[in-house]
Amino acid sequence: MTPARPYHHGNLRQAVLERATAVVRERGASELSLRELAAAVGVTHAAPRRYFPDRQQLLDALAVEGFALLGARLREAVDASPDPSTRVRSIAGAYLEFAISEANLAELMFAHTHGAGGDAVGEGAAAAFAPLVRVFQGDLPPGSTPQRVALIFLATLQGLAGLVNCGVVAVDEVGGLIDEAVARFPQGRGEP
Hints:
The chain has 192 residues and is an all-alpha fold. Helix content is 64%, strand content 0%. The protein has eight helices and no strands. It is elongated and about 55 Å long.
């Protein structure tokens, strides 16, 4: 029997999250094991349970981190665009680039089962998508709200990402599809 290794890691929570993110990116969330992560960061199999008592809490934390990363990319896209129509196109491109390049992480983020970390995941998602709502502020068709337009726009983008990720749509078609999708939505005056 191998003697237990003492805990000597600097920031174990962050180390486990970073390794778990790498596993999700490479192999998907279904391949995530707390025991494997503990071995990879060089601690006993019980050490990560201090921060992640079970696998679902680790998945929740990864979803929150994923939404923070996505939100940062969406804010950058909005901030980098000078006018509303460019902003809508830019945010669509940023979303699709994330959802396609981070397909396994995005799948985990949207497959959340509302466990103990459900509130944190929901708050993370709401914060990530706030730039979408801001982009659609302004002149909208009667009966529309920025929240509703943003939700429909997000659903359109999520659908496109899913079609690309499963191989129905080729990646080189994404630019043209973004242009067509953007043309179907009101541009508003969206504040950056």
